[in-house]
Prior knowledge:
The chain is an alpha+beta fold. 18% of the residues lie in helices and 36% in strands. It has a 19-stranded mixed beta sheet that branches. A two-stranded antiparallel ribbon has the order 9-10. The longest helix is centred in the middle third of the chain and has 16 residues, at 237-252.
Amino acid sequence: MNNNSLPQIPLRAVFMRGGTSRALFFRAEDLPPAGPARDSMILSAMGSPDPNKRQLDGMGAGTSSTSKIAIIAKSTREDADIDYTFGQVSVDAPVISYKGNCGNISSAVGPYAVEEGLVETSGYQATVRIHNTNTGKIIVARFDLQNGLPKLDGDFALDGVAGTGAPIALSFLAPGGSSTGKTLPTGRAREVLETDGFGAIEVSLVDVSNPIACIHAQSLGLTGRESPAEITETPGLLEKIETIRIAAAVRMGICSLEEAQTTVRNLPQIAIVSAPTDQDSPATNIVLRMISTGQAHASSPITGGICLAATMKLPGSVAHALARANKDTRQPLSIAHPSGTLALDADISGSTVDDFSVNAVTVFRTARRLMQGEVMVPRHRI
């Protein structure tokens, strides 16, 4: 039978967990060029758009953490081994946002590249230099090998993921200005943002790895201890936060008002922060509730956590005023979130708005190939 007559198109894919997220991984050579045809195939594979927000007819799972894709190719750059394009697939709209990156999915790129034979390795450890095409930034992944493949077993526990695994060190190099070209897009550590219908709110607008709008929980009438379910169920709260996100996207120069309302629905992430209390570990620097793609995150996006870590180090910012300082400056920063904590090593220079610079931020994740084969795309949908 001619393949063109088949009702469904088989598309080579790998289903990967990276950190606390999951994504379909595609080889760039298997997809059409960037554009509507490629997006139609990906949307269909993921089960989007779904007005019921469940993605039952695809590989997504109805949440922002599980509605993601990665497109991988060998890099032509001298400073990178792999080109990696991230896509945030809307659950309920026919939209894929290629603005910004996902740190959790970034952690799966190195292991995927090794398993696919896209990079050469030897010895007991792999170093994979990843060019994220969304941001133009370089990410370096380092992880142990076993019989030439990424090692899986280990004693590293990742909050939000059951069990333990082998750690992957992920270093984001010079991550400032990933979406806007500036670490501080407005040149301010803190400012008042005017929103449509909800008035003024104090924020810090920072762009490191991914842009965030950092807000004190009390400014939203919250304690900062609410669960994702409580945030979701609070009448009008997510709508108010979405209004703030749209205003922040325009203020930061991420996109136009129309784009923020339609196609760029994932940036900036909204970091709702509060000061640690006696119920937190003494090592906790700040408490976070993150809103990503209109949903309350069950843990913390890596890129948003990276940006918050930088914001904590910025004098005058909302986060700096609330954060508990480390007595030992070499100690990692610790962000408490609904599923546990996120530790980050941040290499930062400068202490004022004029000279503030982020050299690198390193986090540790685990990742695993969950399934490989072909995802079926109904022909009539593309």
